[in-house]
Amino acid sequence: MTNSIDENIRIFDECSGYGYSFDVKKALLNIGTVKAVLYYMDGFVKKDELIKIHESCLKAKDEDIQLQTESDCFSKLAERIIPYADIKTYNECKAAADALHAGMAVLFADGYSECAALDIRDYPKRSISEPSKSKTLRGPHEGFTESLITNSVLIRRRVKTSSLRFELFNIGSISETDVSLCYIESMCDKKLLETLRRKLSSVKTESLTMAQESLAELIFPKKGLASLNPLPTVRYVERPDTAAAMLCEGRILIMCDTSPSVLCIPAGLFSFLEEADDYYFPPVTGSYLRLVRLFIIIASVILVPLWLYFAENPHVIPGALSFIGDLGEFSVPIFAQILIIELAIDGLKLASLNTPDTLSNSLSVVGGLLLGDFAVKSGWFVPQTILYCSFTAIANFIPTNYELGYSIKFSRILILILTHSFGLYGFAAGVFIVLVTLLLTKTPDGKSYLYPVVPFNSREAKRILFRPPLK
User: What angle do CA 40, 114, 69 make, to 5 degrees?
Assistant: First the structure.
C-alpha cells in the first residue's frame, strides 16, 4: 500500500474484484477533511452499523485527525473515530481483500499506508430450532446452526467457567473455513489436545466442501483395511446441552463454520447409546430407556439372521417355536426376500428425503403399506419377512448417529450372508467377525472402542449401562 488513496483504490479494486462481482460495494466518504473510502460486501454486513460508521466519519473533527500524522498510526485513528467496532489493520492489499471476502468492511484514508478492517459481519442464519434427529420429550428445544459464533454462544451460555477455551484455526487455501477447537482446559486430555492442535494446523486442502465430514476424514484418515471399517470413531452432536455435558466429561469438541454438527472426541461405542432424554427423566426411567436401546440394537443385528437360519432349516426348530417355520407358499427365496427388503427400505428413505414436506409422510406410509401388501399377495414375500425386516428398519433409527445405524445394518447383512452360506457355523463366524472388529477398533485417543467393558472398569461400566443419580 502507499500513502496515496487514489493508488490504493486502484490496487484494491483489482484485488477485491470490484466492478466484476456485483456484491462488492464501494462508498466514498470523508473523515473530517480527509478523503476516505469504505469497501464492504452487500448482504454480509449490518446495515445499521454501516450507517453509524458513515456518521462517525462525517462527525470527526480536524483536531482528532491531526493528532495522528504518522502512516503507521492508522489503527489508533480508526479506534478513535470508530470506537465501537472490532478493528484490525493491514498494510497489504491481498490480506485486506481476504478480510473483505470474509465479510468485514475495509476502510482506507488518504495519507495512510494502512487500512482498517471493521468486523461488522452479519451472517445469514436460520433459527436455533431443535434438530429433527435429536429430539427430546423434556429439556431445551435448541439446536446448533450453521454459524460458528452462534454455536459458541450456545455453549458458553451453559458452561460459564473461565477454563472454557475456543481456539480458532483457518483451514482451506480457497474456502478459508473457520474451525474452532473447544475444550475445558482444566478437564481435557492434554495429550489428545496437542494431537488435535497439530492435526488441525497441518491440514492441507483447498476447501472443506462437506464441512465437518471433510474435516473428520482429513484429521482421522483411514488407510488399508481400516478404510473398510464402518464404525464411527467421532460423534456428531447437534444439541448444545449434549455438547456442554460432553465438555464437562473432559471431551473435546471441533466446531466447523457452516455446519450445524459438532465433532465430539473421543467417542466409543457406548457413548453413542447415551441420549439427552436419559438425563431429563428420573434415574430409573433413564436407565430403562438406555437398556431398551441397547437390547433393541443387539436384537436388530442377530434377530433376522437367526430367523433366516430357522426358516432355511425348519427341522431344527423347537416345538414351542414351530410357528416360525410355517411360511406358506412363496416364489422368491427367503434370503433374497430379506436383501430386497433391505434395499427397498433404503430406497424409501432416499425417496422420502427428496419428497416435499407436505407429501413425504403420506407417501412414505402409503408406499410402504401398498408395496408390502402387494408383495405378499403376489407371492413374492411372506408376511414374516416383512415383519422381521420392519423391526430392524425401525431399530435403525434408535441411535441418533447415522454412521452407527449403517454400521449395524452392514453387520447384519454380513451375518446374513454367512448364515445363508454356512448355516449355524456361518452365523457364529459372522458374530465373531463383528466382535473382533469392535475389539480392534480404536478411538482417536488410542483407547479401546469397547471401553469400559474392554478393558473392564466396573464403575464406568455401571455408569454406562445405568443412568446414575446426580450427587
Answer: 125
Grid cell locating 446: 488410542
Q: Is 188 helix (H, G, I), strand (E, B) or coil?
A: coil
DSSP conformational letter for 18:
B
Q: How many CA atoms lie within 13 A of 316 on its CB side?
A: 10
pLDDT in tens, 398-449: 888 888 889 999 999 999 999 999 999 999 999 999 999 999 999 888 889 9
- Strand 34-41: give its sheet, edge to edge: 24-31, 34-41, 105-109, 115-119, 86-90
Which H or E run contains 166?
strand 164-171
CA–CA distance, 378 with 371 (Å, rounded to integer):
10
* CA 207 – CA 228 distance, rounded (Å): 25
In this structure, what is the dihedral angle of CA atoms 356, 362, 363, 365, given to the nearest 10 degrees? 140
Instruction: Tell whether omega for the bond before 356 is within 30 degrees of 0, i.e. cis.
Output: no
**pTM for this entry:** 0.82
pLDDT in tens, 236-279: 999 999 999 999 999 999 999 888 999 999 888 988 888 888 88
> 441 and 232 in contact (C-beta within 8 Å)?
no
CA 235 to chain centre: 8
